[in-house]
Amino acid sequence: MRRRYAGAIGFVVAAMMGATVHAQNFTPEQLDRMAQERQKEIGPRNWGPPPPVTNETYVKRSLPVAVECKSPRRDFEPLYAEPSLESVRVGVAAPQIAVTSVVSKGWRKVLRVGNSFAWIPDADVVPYQPLVPGNTTRCVVAGEAANGMILFDHPAK
After folding, report:
1. 117: pLDDT confidence band, cut at 50, 70 and 90?
2. Labelling 137: which of 18, 28, 97, 148 has CA 20 to 30 A away?
3. What is 40-79 written as a DSSP string?
4. How distant, in Å, are the alpha carbons of 8, 61, 81 from that of 142?
């Protein structure tokens, strides 16, 4: 029985090694020719004009409530629509979150975007932790972009 398994394993290893031996061996000229043929098959593409970039896109606005920059205890900590584990999950916490001072039944209210809020267990909110060790541990909620995205700043000490 062991010989059968050893033979099967040997066959699989030999097949895998044989696959690497037969790698494509096209010259750069052949690759260029094939790319041109493929481009003819695809045809021209029109992605349209780029969206206009205006100063309004980058304007910071004040936030609807007072918040401070914190971190979730774990990566991808779930966010809920209401302060309850039975509530609908509305997303996951980013490495930096804008938390309010509102606490209800052990849950902390988090500003997501614009006037959209979510809830996270208060025990899972910790002081801001940088993604890269050694980076500044200062984090400030700087405001809101025109699209509603929360802006964070990491000033030097």
Report:
1. very high
2. 148
3. HHH------SPPP--HHHH--B--SS--EEEEESSTT-EE
4. 62, 9, 24
In whole angstroms, give the CA distance from residue 113 to residue 64. 10
Instruction: Kindly report the backbone phi and psi dihedral angles of residue 5, in degrees, each rounded to the nearest multiple of 5, phi listed first.
Output: -65, -40
Instruction: Look up the pTM and report it.
Output: 0.61
CA–CA dist 100, 60 (Å, integer): 19
Cα atoms found within 13 Å of the Cα of residue 4, Cβ hemisphere only? 1
Q: How many Å apart are CA 149 and CA 114, to the nearest integer? A: 7
- The single-letter DSSP state of residue 82 is S
Residue 69 CA to residue 81 CA, distance in Å, equals: 20
